Amino acid sequence: MADICLEARDLCKTYIVDGYSNNVLQNINLKIEEGEFVSIMGPSGSGKSTLLYTISGMDDMTAGKVIFDGDDISGMNDKQLTQLRLLKMGFIFQQMYMMKKLCIMDNIVLPGYQAKIMSREEVNKKAEELMRRLEIIETADREITEVSGGQLQRACLARALINSPKVLFADEPTGALNSKASMEVLGEMVKANEAGTTVLMVTHSEKVAASSDRIIYLMDGDIQGELVLGKINTSDGMSSAEKLSLRERKLRKWLEEMGW
Predict the structure, then answer these.
(1) At what angle do helices 120-133 and 104-115 cross, to 10 degrees?
(2) Is residue 186 a contact partner of residue 208, using CB atoms and an 8 Å limit?
(3) Structural domain of residue 68, as residue ranges?
(4) What is the structure's pLDDT at 123?
(5) What is the CATH number of the domain that holds 104?
(6) How far, CA to CA in Å, does 70 sit from each of 12, 50, 66, 82, 151?
(7) Residue of 107, 130, 106 whose CA lies nearest to 188
(8) Rounded Cα gap, residues 160 and 85, in angstroms
(9) Roughly how many angstroms between the first and final C-alpha of the chain, as a whole number?
(10) Based on the structure, what is the number of domains in the chain?
C-alpha cells in the first residue's frame, strides 16, 4: 500500500452570513495516496472548490485536521502555510492567474526564484525543459495576452511544476478551454502524475475525470461515494482511446446512480 500524502480528518468549513451558518463542508474524511490522481465531482454548490482550498491550506478550516506529507497543517500560521505551498504544492485554476507585467517565462520561473532551493540558472534550465515538454517554448518571451488559452494553461502547469511539488491541486483546469486544448492540458497532467506527482482535481467534466484513478462524489458538503478506476493499462491490446471511452461510460453510469 502506498504512503498517505494528504489526509483530511473530520474537516469542517462553516461560513457565517448575516448571522446564519452555512456548513459548506461537514466532517470530511479523505485520504490521498502518494502518486494518486483523484478527481472531486458533484453538483454546483456541493463544496468541491471549498474542499480543495481548505485541504490545501488556502482557506481556513472551521474544525478538523489536515495532514500533509506527515505534518498537521491545521495549526500552521500564514507564513508557514505560504512556505509549504511554495515548496510542496502546485496550483492551477480555471482562471489562469499570471502577472500581466511579466512574460510567460518570467511567470514560470518566479516561484522557483522565490523558493531558493535551486540556483537561478537551475530554475531557468528547468523552466526551459518544462516548456519544451509542454510544447510552449516558443511563447517564452511573449506577454500573457499574446498566447492562446491552451498555451497559457500549459504555462500555468509549468509554473505549478517548477518546484517539483508533492501534490498538484487543480480547480477546473480545463473549464475555460475548448475540447482539444482541454485534452492537451489533461494529457500533460497525466504525464506529471505518471512521473510521481500526486494530483487532486475538481472537475465537472466526465471526459476529464475518466483519466483519474479515483473519483470522489461530493454533495451538500459531504462525501456521498467514490469510484475507483485505477491506472489506465493498455497492455491488454486496447488503445488508450478505447480504454478512456470505457472508463467514461462507467463513470457516467455511476454518476447517474449518484444523482448527477
Answers:
(1) 130
(2) yes
(3) 4-257
(4) 98
(5) 3.40.50.300
(6) 20, 22, 10, 17, 35
(7) 130
(8) 10
(9) 31
(10) 1
